[in-house]
Amino acid sequence: MPVSQNRRSFLRGGRPSASEWRPPWTTASITDVCTRCDRCVEACPENILFRGDGGFPQIRFTGEGCTLCGECAKACPEPVFDLTREAFPWRAVIRDHCLAKANIHCSTCRDACETSAIRFPPKLGHVAVPEVTLEDCTGCGACVAVCPEDAISLEAPQTESPSYA
Description:
Elements lengths: L4 H7 L18 H4 L5 H5 L5 E3 L5 E3 L11 H5 L15 E4 L13 H5 L5 E2 L11 E2 L9 H5 L5 E4 L10
Antiparallel strand pairs: 1-2, 3-6, 4-5
């Protein structure tokens, strides 16, 4: 009997499942080819990979983000990683409880963003508020790891709905 992802998400307290927090350059079909050998987990210099649901590798952005070094892919003996694809399907989204949005100076996310995807354009009479340039964001999670308010989430970019005019 297949498990409803909505039900599973509810039971997990809304936290993403293993298929959502997978290593870079992999797809949701990682469970079809991964042998759960842990070589990618052991090879990760940032220690962001761990043995997750069902023993499959997952990512946890707590102290670091992914530097996209590729060590996990090099260590894997199976065809799990595809370095020709985009590393991550998600991008950073700044939520409303961001300190800067509450007029409190904070720019830790910008400082952690290696691609400069997070910018703080000046605002007259208000603390500069972060903006994410989706084209520059790699989804590496460095901003998530450093945010003191847990105000950054990684989400799949919204695609435009087809126009029926």
